[in-house]
């Protein structure tokens, strides 16, 4: 079912060790031919460690179980007297601990992973500007952080439906997505074997796993939204908390009064969860039961340290509907709920659109930051145009790059199959790669310290015709190598000082290097060399009769 070790071409798995030996932070080291190396962030988990022998039936080693504090009550009912006032529950979420000034092993782990101070991580979590999703029941995951002062993260949605794909395929999609760089995955399975699928994914996932519990709740009541109730939803949430889900999308902001605001939209309500809750509200003419029971929901999530992902059930599903009243009314409610979650020591992030043209993207970020007091923003794209079904990883990566630059902390990928079908393995890869590009482009634009080192290393390799280094440093080494092989398959071409795009005579990089070498030989500055070189070339050109096209030499390796 799953292929053996997914080794990343020619890269080495290394670990940075923290203050205790079991804080081992995975990194990907790319050795270069000049003897140096570049160390990259790595999300692939133990699968890319040659020492690790994966057995999906056993699951990953429970990396974090030893980090539980001794005597820690998890589903905490305990109280502590606080200075003579009312007793206050002592909670153990990362947020509660950060607020108490504690640097947890998880915080230390992400500090090493991001190359920042642990105190900075603690402070960002304490003020709610970052979340560290770690369900106490998912000890297999490697801690990561979502917040705008850290690297921009990417989520990949996987999950089967009643009509397609098996559990094995979903586990493999999870491994595949993280191998290409997905920082979290969401299991959006529907259909009969929801619980079992999730169990396999959780036990084998090295990254946090998110879900949308209303999907399973709906299965439990036979697929009829009006048959849902707070009780069924609550029970489903607890079941998923027990299993180890790290964050949950809850569409608590779809309030009864907002549903009519979608009446004049071009595409109505496009969120699955949003439409289920809107249908319930209308059927009962009652307020959304997640909204009315939100404080109790906070108590449940806090007990496991499950992070809220406040869903955007009223996000626009078309360019026409972007930034409308329904969308922003919901966002205001999400702002209100953010504060309720924080009062309960719950970590919280906010979901965002959807379909938004480029000129309307910034307003989304500005409003979200203001209304949700800087809680991390987590957006789906947005798609910047509706005209390209089959290419929506591109229409949306454009929006994702922009919204990431403006401060969105995590980007939910969109695959080429969006609006058309369920993504297969290739679509998952296309989606993740498109989003890694968007996220990294945003990191660069934000001036994230260290982000540019990767680009600089690759550019240097390109300029010096170190082809192997250029491939190995690529986001997708396999594709880079195979494209080069298509036109220049021979081994010498991997050291050639040109490629098949411009050929030997028109390679700008080679010409620049010639200019530099000429300058050095003749003791000139680059500018003088260019002038001198130009004069010499002009003479040569005239002598040869002014022909622009010279006969091609034979390809390398055939001479
Ligand atoms: C992310 C931002 N806005 C929406 N999302 C994702 O969409 C969310 O995290 C989850 O993966 C999916 C939920 O879709 P519905 O139920 O809102 O359509
Ligand atoms: Fe859409």
Automatic annotation (TrEMBL):
ThiC-associated domain residues: 9-68
A single MF term (Gene Ontology): phosphomethylpyrimidine synthase activity
Broad EC category: lyase
UniProt xrefs under Pfam families: ThiC-associated, ThiC_Rad_SAM
UniProt keyword annotations, A-Z: 4Fe-4S, Iron, Iron-sulfur, Lyase, Metal-binding, S-adenosyl-L-methionine, Thiamine biosynthesis, Zinc
Residues annotated to bind substrate: 157, 186, 215, 251, 271-273, 312-315, 351, 378
Sites where the protein binds [4Fe-4S] cluster: 499, 502, 507
Reaction equations catalysed: 5-amino-1-(5-phospho-beta-D-ribosyl)imidazole + S-adenosyl-L-methionine = 4-amino-2-methyl-5-(phosphooxymethyl)pyrimidine + CO + 5'-deoxyadenosine + formate + L-methionine + 3 H(+)
Pathway(s) it belongs to: Cofactor biosynthesis; thiamine diphosphate biosynthesis
Cited InterPro entries: ThiC, ThiC-associated_dom, ThiC/Bza_core_dom, ThiC/BzaA/B
Keyword 4Fe-4S: yes
Binding-site residues, Zn(2+): 355, 419
Cofactor: [4Fe-4S] cluster
Function summary: Catalyzes the synthesis of the hydroxymethylpyrimidine phosphate (HMP-P) moiety of thiamine from aminoimidazole ribotide (AIR) in a radical S-adenosyl-L-methionine (SAM)-dependent reaction.
Family as reported in the entry's similarity comment: Belongs to the ThiC family.
Protein name: Phosphomethylpyrimidine synthase
Taxonomic source organism: Streptosporangium jomthongense
